[in-house]
Structure formats: structure tokens, C-alpha cells
Amino acid sequence: MNPVDSKKQKPATLKKQRPFMKYILASCAVLLGSFLFFQYGSTSDIFLSHTPETLENESLTEAICSEISMEDPEFNTASFNEKPEPIEEIHTGTVKAGDTVSRILSPWLSPSLIHELGKSSSPVFDLRRLRTGRDYKVITLDGEFAGFEYSINRSQFLSVELDKEGFHAEVNTLSFDLETATINGIIETSLSEAMQTAEDITLAVRLNNLFGWEIDFARDLRKGDSFSVLVERRYHNDTFQGYGNILAAEIINRGHRYDAFRFENEDGSADFYNSQGQNIQRFFLKNPVPFSRITSGFTHRRWHPILKDYRPHYGVDYAAPTGTPIYAAGSGTILQVGQNAGAGRYVRIRHGNGYETAYLHMSRFERGMRPGRKVNQGDVIGYVGQSGLATGPHVCFRMTKDGVPVDPTKIDSPRAGELPEERRKEFAALVASLQPQLGIQYAELEKTEKKNSKAEKKSM
């Protein structure tokens, strides 16, 4: 045989031997495995790594875990994947002189975002009208701006929130706890001073407006006069937030009693009637400026302090500090909002029955005053000043009837609608329940009224 051919046959022999060796090794492994299983597996748990001790521990663990509710958040695996709640911080402050919304919000927002916030707020509240002394809050989440709140007044606040869609603004009304209180006092110099001693000055303004049809507070009050008012005091989070409805009130002026009781109409509105059932509201207020004093009356001949000659003065001058609100004496339509050299800044209003009123020498007009606008009695139309020919801050209040000047202090304007006859018993019951709460000694007042009445008869 050729040596070369024998070399070529050797690999074929090795290939035949390798499968046979595999079968031998596999058989040995099966035999060894069978031996171990029958030797240990049938009598022990070693083969599966279980001993009697481990079995006992597993049974105990199973029993404990079966008593644990998998709804418990401590054992809820999903809770481990949740992000932590953001940290909320509230930054409070008070608007100071010169403050703007840009200055207040600049630590948290860029100028462009502040502009967007202002645009979103403008349909409900103009943020350019921030007032000194009003409170505000800036809310942040993890240091990022989330919201802004501004106290518009004692009953409303602006709320602006920021989310993925942008800024959202709305005006909300505070919820109040109401407490009924009786407040009374003796007048030494003025109603405002007496009220400041007993309570908030705003209540004096409310009382002035309530009795403004009956009493001229600039001329009629005397030392020793008294007042009593039953009013709702409003609280929010135990903080006093001003007054709600006046329920009843009474003023003793020169021995004469003027009273008013709030009575709700069937449509839900309310009017004030005196104890005789007469509506206390009249066509005109006696005085368009509360807590003022008359410095010059209606006359056909008066020495003009600036022009230095005698001429008619067809009005009544009420002196008051610059900026004091001026109220519309009656409901009507604005005819003019203008300015000239003599009258300064003035407003003219047309009322019913041929009456017109004018208010001269204002420092500024109330926002929104324009010809054709309707105003209600008691609306603020401007503020006291000394524009035009004036030697000091005051308002010259003028009135005409069918184009003829009349003295506004001598107008006996008619009352508003009377109390419906069918509701008089209901009103009488209301008066009987509220009068004792005013704290006035009626027996003593009746004696005083009788004495005054007798004195008037003797003098006649």
C-alpha cells in the first residue's frame, strides 16, 4: 500500500470512534444521576437545597406575608416609582408706594412672562391699578412661579395661575363668617370722629349715605347728638374684613329721631324704611360730599375772592380735603365731563323731572366718566380739588330745575316708593325685633321728643 494512501485513511477511523465515546460518557452521567437521586432525593431535600429548617422558615414567612394587604402603600411597588410631591411656598407682601406688578414678580418671572400674565388678567382686572396697602401672595412650587393673588378689596381677590397652557386669571369672592354687632356713640364734633372712636371710619361713610336724604351732615349735626347702628361684621380666617349689611340704624339729631330698617323685597333686593313704613330714600342726597363743611351758600350776590367783585353764586361750596370722593346726588345720565378756566374739572348730570346737577373744581374724575353714561345715586363721580378759580379744595354743588338755578339745600325732594300695604304687618314685626338691639332708651327719647314738640308749639 502506498504510504500516502494510509495517511489519508486515518481521519476516517477517528470519526468512527468519536460517536461511540459520546454514548459511553452520556451513559455514565445518567447512571451517576440516578444513583444520587435514589440515594438522597427520596429521603432528604438536600438535592433541592431544602432542609427541614429552611422549610419551617419558608412556612413562617408565607404565614406573615399572607396577613399583609398588598394595597398598603408601604408595600405597593408602584409607589416606589412615584416622584416626590413638589414643595409649595407662599411669599406674602403688601403693595408699597411705587410698586408695580413687574417689580413684585421680577424674582420669579421674566419681563415677557409678566407681560403675558398682565394680558391674561386684563379682562377681569387691570394690574396697573394696584393700590398701596393691599396684600398679595406669590405661590411657588420647587422655587418656580405657580400663582399670584392680589386683594382687590375686602371681599374680592384676583387669582392668576400658571399651568402648561399658560396663565389663567379670575376674580373670586371671599367667604365670610358674619357676626351681628351694635355700635353706638355720642357726637362731639362730627360723625366721622365719633365713629373713629367706636369703629372703622368706613361705617361712618355708610351711615352718612344711608341718612343722606334726611340729614345734611355738614350743617345739621350738633354736639350731643347720638347714633346707633346694627350691622353685620365680616370675618375671614378670624380676621375682620369690613361690614356686611346694615340691618337697622338710628340717629338722634337735635332731639329728633331718624331711623331706618332694612327690608327685603320679594325680588331679593332690599330698601330702607323708617319705623312708620316710609321709604327713607329720596330723589336727591342733601350733600354730595360726606364730612364736609359749607364755606359758601347759594346767593344772588356774593363777593368773589378771586375776581374781586360781586356776582351771583348759584351753588353751595362744600370744603373737604383734596381727594375726598364726590357722590352723584341722584340717579341720572352724564351730560358733560369737561374743564374750563372758571369751573375747573366738572361733571354735569341730567336727572328726571327737569333737574340737573353740576359738580365743580374736581381734582380728577372717577375712571369711566363720560357723556351718556348712566350713574346711580351715591356713585362716585370724582374727587375734591381746587381746579379752576378756587382758593382751596372744595366742590361747588349746583342744581337747576327746568334750567333755573335752585338752592340744593332747600329742595324737599319726593320719597321713593312706599312699603306695599300687604307687607306692613311683616315689616312691623321686623321693626319690633330689631329696635331693642339698637340699644336706645326709647322711653327717654319719647320724653325728649314730647318736650321738643311742646316747645315748638309755644314758639309758634
UniProtKB/TrEMBL annotation:
Say yes or no: keyword Membrane present: yes
Keywords annotated in UniProt: Hydrolase, Membrane, Metal-binding, Metalloprotease, Protease, Transmembrane, Transmembrane helix, Zinc
Q: Which domain of life is it from?
A: Bacteria
Where is the protein situated, by its record's location annotation? Cell envelope
Listed transmembrane segments: 20-40
Q: Which GO CC annotations does the UniProt entry carry? A: cell envelope
Pfam families from the xrefs?
Answer: Csd3_N2, Peptidase_M23
Query: What main location does UniProt list?
Result: other
The protein's matches in InterPro entries, at most eight in alphabetical order, are given as: Cell_wall_metabolism_enzyme (IPR050570), Csd3_N2 (IPR045834), Dup_hybrid_motif (IPR011055), M23ase_b-sheet_dom (IPR016047)
Start and end of every Csd3-like second N-terminal domain? 182-298
Residues covered by the M23ase beta-sheet core domain: 312-408
Q: Which GO terms describe its biological process?
A: proteolysis
- Cofactor(s) essential for the protein: Zn(2+)
Q: Does the keyword Transmembrane apply?
A: yes
* One of the record's GO molecular function terms: metal ion binding
- State the SUPFAM superfamilies in the record: Duplicated hybrid motif
The name of this protein is Peptidoglycan DD-metalloendopeptidase family protein
The lineage is:
Bacteria, Pseudomonadati, Thermodesulfobacteriota, Desulfobacteria, Desulfobacterales
